[in-house]
UniProtKB/TrEMBL annotation:
Alphabetized PANTHER family for the sequence: HISTIDINE TRIAD HIT PROTEIN (PTHR23089)
Chain ranges for the short sequence motif Histidine triad motif as given in the UniProt record: 108-112
Pfam families reported in the protein's UniProt record: HIT
Record's protein name: HIT domain-containing protein
Lineage, broadest ranks: Bacteria, Pseudomonadati, Pseudomonadota, Alphaproteobacteria, Rhodobacterales
Source superkingdom: Bacteria
Domain HIT: 10-126
Length: 126
């Protein structure tokens, strides 16, 4: 099934410079910025610059360079936030959502990196 990318989504608008953000790090293929509604003391969104809708879409269609850059940038964010276990941090959670059942609010693939406090259970049934 083909993924349909919405060029008007908020992350596409951020990437075009139409909406400001608090950038943490930017590379050729990736942008990481602070979430405007943080759910933990540290909450950064990592997004690819390409038009990918979900994790599986990104994994299936992104170039090797995009995939490597995205993951290395995410690792850099963890180190910059001081949450990486390898840097003496206490840990973090990486979250990605896909579609309605997954709770995806913005139809552009993104990874939430949250940490800085105990985060509790991974899922709750509301």
């Amino acid at each position: 099934m083909a993924h349909s990318y919405d060029e008007t989504n908020i992350f596409a608008r951020i990437l075009r410079g139409e909406i400001p953000n608090k950038t943490v790090i930017e590379t050729d293929h990736t942008l990481a910025f602070h979430d405007i509604n943080p759910q933990a003391p540290h909450h950064v969104l990592v997004i690819p610059k390409g038009p990918y809708v979900t994790f599986d879409h990104f994994c299936a269609e992104a170039s090797d360079a995009e995939i490597v850059d995205f993951h290395r940038t995410a690792a850099s964010v963890c180190a910059m936030l001081g949450v990486s276990l390898g840097d003496g941090g206490a840990g973090y959670r990486g979250i990605t959502n896909a579609g309605g059942h997954g709770g995806q609010e913005v139809p552009h693939y993104h990874l939430h990196i949250v940490g800085g406090a105990p985060l509790g259970r991974m899922l709750s049934r509301d």
